[in-house]
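Subject: Sanity check before I submit

Could someone independently write out the structure tokens for this chain? I want to compare against mine line by line before I put it in a report. The sequence has 442 residues.
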Amino acid sequence: MKKFWLFIVFLSLLNCSKKEGLFIDEIPTETKTTSTHTFGGSKNDGLHSVEKTVDGGFIVAGFTQSNNADIVSKTNESFDFLVSKFSSDNKLEWQKTFGGTQDDRAAAIIQTVDGGFAVLGYAKSSDLDVTKNAGSKDFWLLKLSNNGTLLWQKTFGFSGADYGTTLLETKNGGFLITGVLDVSASNGQGNAKSAATQHAGGDYWVLKTDNAGNLEWNTFFGGSFTDTPLGIVETINNNFIIAGSSDSNDFNIENNKGTYDFWIIKISSTGNLIWEKSFGGSEIDEARAITSTNDGHFIIVGDTRSKDKDVSINNGAADVWAIKISTEGILIWEKTIGGTSFDVARAVTKTQDNGFLIAGSSRSLDKGFENKGQNDALILKIDANGKLLWQKTVGGSQIDFLYGVVELNNKIIIAVGESSSSDQDISENKGFTDALIIQIEE
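---
Independent answer below. Compare away.
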């Protein structure tokens, strides 16, 4: 009987300790087959976006400065859009570069309903493929055929640094694109706001075009400081939710929690603001990507340095932070994942089993993280309730980042980014940074 009561006391202490955070649950790590591939030349090359394609393969977009080794379609050493199409077994089918003689970089790519592709980023050039530039940087939107032929291109911007970050093809046709508008340099241009509501800083700039890239409407949202949109989804009612970060606390932003917050806005199909919400704590919290869930809500990921207000736990310098919100912007749950150093998320995608893949980078050496150098590429999976299912780091002794992730129809995971390593998990580096592709068989 004495042993029985001692056992009951032990169980009680164990449950109490877990509630107080004194016991750390075992963190699952990914042990399935993983392969890495780098490509590029002697300069800087990287990937920022990946999407699965209707033929079972995938397409990637980013930038290249190289004109040698794996980059065969360039003659100069300026930065150009890099677009590469791969089969489902990771074989390169075609590769294209687009740009002028200055700095032009792609941030996002999607496959369109006609089987072609749309690419968004920024252009500093005003020659070669870039027919117009209004200032330091402009949004640059490209429409490609299914074999990578440039069909048309459009620039949008004013005299300052305006750069595109993400896009989608709307259900009623055309494209919704967003990025940062340099409001000060544009002198309040970018929508029809009155002079009384014009404000400084970089704002969310949202533009709607038709199928040929012709502008239908545009509008901007933000405050006096820095507001950066990095993810967008369309709702079932043809509205749009845009996720990013803001350190403003005026004009459109009414409830900043402290320094940078996840700043989420919902707008109508004609660009009117429906609601805006800030999520975070008293430190820096930055949203980087958003995706829809099967139950009509939304998952937003980024990183947090906070441990108060909306953020219940912080394990170190920065943690991956994932939140789920309703279509009305109500916080349903929030989860932090990380070790005692810097761990960040840059992309999220839904999987066929109703889970979510998150990609980013990690510098931690504890709590299941196996750092091999500086920043390692990080891939993890959570279920529909935010529970961590597995996590994996891939890298070498230098800096390795991921910016995009997708699950193909055959359930193979593809994550993309850039790498400066040439050891451990990364077998080769041809220049300063190489484009990085990681493949995981689930």
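---
OP: Matches mine. For the report I'm noting this point. The chain has one domain: 30-441.
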